[in-house]
Amino acid sequence: MQRTLVLIKPDGVHRRLVGSVLQRFEQKGLRLVGMKLVQADRALAEKHYAVHKGKPFYESLVSFITAGPTVAVVLEGREAVAVVRSLMGPTDGAKAPPGTIRGDFGCSIQNNLVHGSDSPETAAAEIALWFRPEELIAWQPVDHAWVIGD
Ligand code: IDP
Ligand code: MG
Description:
The chain has helices at residues 10-14, 18-28, 42-48, 58-65, 80-88, 101-105, 120-130, 144-148; strands at 2-8, 31-38, 70-77, 114-116. The protein is of the alpha+beta class.
């Protein structure tokens, strides 16, 4: 089992797509471990996107992610990091294939609805940035054996 951080970015919240996006992850078999609505401030946004500091889109990205509420979610499941990235699709919504979240719901590079951690190490750091340990709940869904198959 692996955990990953998902953010439904402010464009997804403004566009009332939170339920539609979360449904993709739930129906795939990932379980909710933490979830909350957060108004990110600049300090949080800068930490979350520190790896992009200095890039041409950095200032716009920080403005975007702080421009409205974000739904922060921790998901757990087998290969959760890779599974989430694959359900999200590539960064640019215009190039993301149909069937992916970004491919189905957007056509912007920046306003691409979702964030998903890109490695287990990044996931651990990002989960610690967005959640306190007591906000996360370890539990096993009743259909676990049917979803995982071992
Ligand atoms: P990812 O979210 O697919 O991992 P990253 O390259 O890590 O993509 O970029 C982080 C976020 O920065 C993207 O999700 C998107 O919102 C924004 N972004 C990335 N590249 C561009 C760009 O070229 N122009 C504007 N925004 C961008
Ligand atoms: Mg990334």
